[in-house]
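User: My instructor asked us to take a sequence, write out its structure as tokens, and then describe one feature of it. I'm not sure where to start. Here is the sequence I was given:
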Amino acid sequence: MSDTILIMLLSVIGVLLLATLVLQVLFFFKKQKPPQVQISSSIENMRSIGELSVFRVLMKEIVTETDHSWGDVGKKYLSWVLSSKKMAMIFEFDIDFRYDLRSSDFSISTSGPSAYTLQMPPCFYQVSIRDIRFYDEQRARFLPWLLPDLLNAFANVGFGEEGKNRLVEAAKGHAEDQAREMISRLKGEVETSCKQTLELIAKALGAQQVGFRFHDEELKKLVVDYDAPEANVA
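Assistant: Let's start with the prediction itself. The structure tokens for your sequence are:
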């Protein structure tokens, strides 16, 4: 009789232990599921970043003669002042590479536990002209962008406000041509910088692994701006 009671007690204890183990396993998985959902929700919040600048290049060019990219405006004004007045033009602009994370082309998919793949939208870039100055070789000094003494140098060719505006437009076209030549060589560096930036953000939000897919198409949406510099002698 005692052996039967002992066996029954051991059976009850075994059932209780098994039930406790099952409850612990269920509780573990139930506890682990919400953080995964929370991480996914946090990753989706990356869209609120909007336009993400991932790479910037500052360029400085010394123009001592004009070429076809300056067009007829450059030939009319620049070829005259750069040759007869012995001047060189210092031309500064930068290229800013960006991804619009609000674009419908940007998507985030789950590839495993705390692992995500980011489908990137096409990259676009903006060119900004930062400064245009002339270097007077005869007097060994810089002249800010079209100050009165420089305007006097242009006087013989009828240069006025309209001519200045046309020359700025020609400068934009020249910057665009120069930027396109460089951009074709920078695509790899731009994508690497994008990966490093977004991977840091995603891991800060709880992701453990982050993969990327980029568009094969060329970089697009070239915009050229001109920020008029202050008229101060360098």
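For the description part of your assignment, you could build on this observation: Residues 230-234 have pLDDT under 50 and may be disordered. Try explaining in your own words what that tells you about the chain.
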